[in-house]
Amino acid sequence: MLDSQVLVRDTDFSRLALTWEQLAQLMGEQGDATTPAKLRQLAEKTRRAELNIAFCGHFSAGKSTMINTLLGVSLLPSNPIPTSANVVKIRGGEKAARVYTMNGDVVTFDPDTEMEKLKQFAVDGDTVESVEVSYPGTLLDEHSSLLDTPGIDSTDAAHKIATESALHLADVVIYMMDYNHVQAEENFNFTKTLKDRGKPVYLVVNMIDKHIDFELDFESYKESVEEAFATWNIHPDGIFYTSLAEPDHPENQYVELKQKLLSLIAGREELVAKSVRSAAEHLIEEHVQAVKASHAQTRQELENKLDSLNVADVDSRDAHAVAAALEQAQAIMQSLGNRAAEARAQMEKELGVLLDNARLTYYSTSEAAASYLESRKPGFKMGFLFAGKKTEEERQRREEALLAEFREKVAGNLDFHFKELMSKQLQAYELRDEDYHARVHATEIVITGEFLAKHIKDGAASREYVMNYCTDVASAIKLEYRRAGLAFIEEVIARLATNMQAESASQQERLDVLREMAAVHGQLASFTASEENIRERLQAIMREGEQES
User: Fold this and answer.
1) Which helix (H) or strand (E) holds 105?
2) Gap between the Cα atoms of 175 and 203, Å rounded
3) Residue 80 pLDDT
4) I want to staple 148 with a disulfide (CB 3.0 to 4.6 A). Which of 88, 137, 224, 259 is the partner?
5) pTM of the model as a whole
6) Is 152 inside any structural domain?
């Protein structure tokens, strides 16, 4: 934080005023009809480096009488009713009294001879916008003013609005209370609001002549006042106990109060430099709230829409929960879309691994194949007598031997595992079909003599030739199993697609609702982002203006 003396010395009030006007223009462009006017008022006050000391409090606390007494001249009505519907500003300088009306007219009066007329205007909140009086010879100069605000406890809402709307122009607040009403909750609420806004606040407990000492000594009364405000976490900049009815009251601090005001006026520039910055910050926040209010109806409609959207296990108002559920639903839909292709690829891969690893030829197979191939050569002949019959019988025997060899190896190394694999495919995808299982187990790849014969090729009956023949037969057998396996895989895929169609419809419905929820949250987030962007932009302009000043 800058040292206060440096702050005063380096403050260019004219430059700050231009900054407030720039902020007001931007706010007006964003549709704010209230805050820009306050900023322009703040700019006018800043340009003059004018100190405003606002007197606030209950209408019966004696604000007007106190101001008249401090000034040494009766400029304000002091009837015990909530008279002032407007904020009345009193400053030093040449004698003048002006009433600014709602339609832009300015009515002038002589403060010495026509104050009764002025007082009538001061209570007319419907046509009067503001009242200003300047008067020489008081504790005020032309750069310092006292503001008399309407009573905060008035039943007239316009009175409260007038008080609150003037607070951005107040550099210091003198909060006055009747001796008997110090601990009214309204006092605590209002003064806490002022302190939260960074305003210097001095409490004045007026009419202490009502105190009866034998009921409670005055020191104990003062302690009770301080403790009451401390309980609300309110720490005023000072507390004064006054009596105008009994100036000689031993506890009367009227003189100290007046000295404090003179001290504040003497330190005008330092107070103003701090105050206008604080006021501008508050008005920026007030503008952001106005922007939020302009979004309120649409925001409520969007929130109502969220309430009308329902998805199991998802809180529609929770943006993070909706986003997480949407991501999950999208992943499920994508998974469903890929499931059939992934299932097919997985089953074909498992079938391929089974077939590749199934060993169908051994040494015994090669020996049987060599014998079989020899019997198929042209010129193969057995014996001399009855050679034709013997040759055919031998050929048949050798064929049966090779068939038995392959059938044994297929049964032990392929067929059993094939049927086990095909049977479990349905279970892997939580499908049930007894007929499918029966057909899998009824699968039979028949190896016949014709099957063996059609793989014979011309060539020398070498060991290599025999091995190639065995490989060709084994590959042909596996090919038949592959065809059968692919047919079963197609059945599983068809069943899976049917189930997925129903699941996809349900998931799509859930996904559509979640997308709608997410879109609504996106709109709500855009409002929040735009409000924050407005705040950041205005604060950046303010910082830039402060640096240049």
Assistant:
1) none
2) 5
3) 42
4) 88
5) 0.67
6) yes
